[in-house]
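Batch manifest, entry 17 of 40.
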Amino acid sequence: MRILASAPGKLVLFGEYAVLEGAPALVLAVDRRARVELDKGKDKDWTLISQPYLEREVHFTLDADNAVRWLDLSKAERSRLRYVQRLIEMLSKEAWFDAASERGSLMLDTRAFHEPGGVKLGLGSSAALTVALMAAAGATRENACQDRPLPQLPSLLSRHRSLQGGRGSGLDVAASLYGGAILYTLESHTQAMPRVIPVALPGSIRLLCLWSGRAASTGEFLTRLQAWREARPEVATWLMGRLEALARDGSCALEAGSPEELLRAMAEYGDGLRALGDASGLDIYSAEHRRLATLARQAGIVYKPSGAGGGDIGVAASNDPERLDYLRRLSESAGFLCLNLQPDSRGCEVRVEETSEGETHGTYITHS
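Output type: structure tokens
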């Protein structure tokens, strides 16, 4: 049995940080996909290819205690595969893999989430990989339903959060599972099952994604933000409340279907992020984001960081394609990389290939 699975990355158009307070976030799946190939075989050991982190094939076994035992991996290579190892061990512990008897090959590919120099772009690669690998592993389970449904969002969220130290909202996981554009809202501060509503952006809005030139750590930002909130609770409450209100304004603009109102909501949310960064000392609007925002103002269009900020991706939005083209030229002249990202209506997809009487038959699994 051979399983092929993939899941898209994400952009956040508004709702960063405030989503953790119960505010809605507008999230868009984009056509950079994590890809997984899982082939059950009779080999003695598991074979792994993990791109772009390794340039060669490596081997491991799964012990009875569900631990990965690398057979030919250096210390530096193990460090690069730390997340992959924890993900495999988690799936083995929960019987998604049969550690005692199963063998096979595993190919993991998240190259689409990196810029040419190998730096992460900040499009949610770990979430997309988690969704794709769990979907691939689940499709092989003997006790799976006949139609082999994809893993459900609560299961994916709990596992991804455990791998991320309990931090984050999980909006990237939802985008990878469902695809398209969604409004994502946590129902409570306990991070219970979120509400996910498929939405459509106004048809005239176009986006331009820009790489700031450096990677950022969302986990580090969340840790520092929490420390600042504990030290300055009154200021933090006011600023977070402002972001919550702006996110709800954005949701109303989306519901109204007005491109002008949505663009104004995105611009105001970007201003709210800048105020949060200035007050907390978080570099949400880094020097690179500030430079891109200046270029966007010169072009007469909206710009904001997408996600935690500090680096990674920024997104410009307009209902005037000529203005976006002008910003593209300005940004490239200033040395920034413009990314050719497109919305991806497809969420996680799995193809199960089974061979019978010399013929290979494939079945597709998608989220319904």
